[in-house]
């Protein structure tokens, strides 16, 4: 499982969305969402990532970073991924405090 796809799947399930519902909300097909979640395709375009972020109530910037960590050279992917995880955790803590 890739990091971006796994994150999308966990957030989709946490929100109680089916593949069909998420696909409809972002204007795509459920098979495409499934392919993303299972790492069969690369992360989608920035526009689709933004739509996913809105549908899943996730910060656009963090989701874009997570999507594009995979496209970075392998030598820095781990460093970038840790930074994204920290940013997502901070956002969750702020959201809980509000």
Structural description of this entry:
74% of the residues lie in helices and 0% in strands. By secondary structure, the protein is mostly helical. The chain has a single domain, classed as lambda repressor-like DNA-binding domains (434 Repressor (Amino-terminal Domain), Orthogonal Bundle), CATH 1.10.260.40. It is globular.
Concise summary:
The chain is mainly α and 98 residues long. The chain is built from six helices and no strands. It has a single domain, classed as lambda repressor-like DNA-binding domains (434 Repressor (Amino-terminal Domain)).
CATH classification, class level:
Mainly Alpha
Model regions low in confidence, pLDDT < 50 over at least 5 residues: none
For the biggest sheet, the summary is:
none
Write down the Rg.
13 Å
Helical residue percent band: over 70%
Q: What does the average pLDDT come to?
A: 87
Number of helices: 6
SSE layout and pairings?
Layout: H1 3-14, H2 19-26, H3 30-37, H4 46-56, H5 60-69, H6 74-97
Helix pairs in contact: 1-3, 2-3, 4-5, 5-6
Describe this protein with a few key phrases.
single chain; 98 residues; mainly alpha; 434 Repressor (Amino-terminal Domain); 0% strand
């Amino acid at each position: 499982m890739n990091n971006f796809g796994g994150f999308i799947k966990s957030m989709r399930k946490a929100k109680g969305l089916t593949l069909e519902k998420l696909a409809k909300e972002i204007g795509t097909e459920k098979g495409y969402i499934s392919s993303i979640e299972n790492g069969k395709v690369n992360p989608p375009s920035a526009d689709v990532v933004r739509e996913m972020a809105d549908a899943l109530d996730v910060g656009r910037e963090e989701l874009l970073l997570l999507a594009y960590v995979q496209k970075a050279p392998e030598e820095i992917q781990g460093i970038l991924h840790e930074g994204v995880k920290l940013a997502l955790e901070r956002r969750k803590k702020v959201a809980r405090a509000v």
